[in-house]
Amino acid sequence: MNDNAPRHVATLLNENGVRVVEFVLSAQTDGAWHHHSELVEYCYCLKGRLAVEIEGGENVILGPGDKCEIAAGTRHRVCNADHSDCRFLMIQGVGIYDFIQQN
Known about the structure:
The protein is mainly β.
């Protein structure tokens, strides 16, 4: 298990091909590079600073209330860009959820 992986806080919705999950990412850590086969993913920062790294695209730093969209099939990862915990929502859909991890 990756101790630096985002910690699941709550699944707010998981039905009809839409998934909304709240996560916390510890200070100065990052998630794994991955993509989703058919889901568009939206990242919403709730607290702290969330960096969204997108392969071949622009990296984005989100503050509370900021959001970004990641197209299906796009390799990406989330990183905590701050010295304290970062809390964020992932909204994914519409489609079948998968998490295809890549190193």
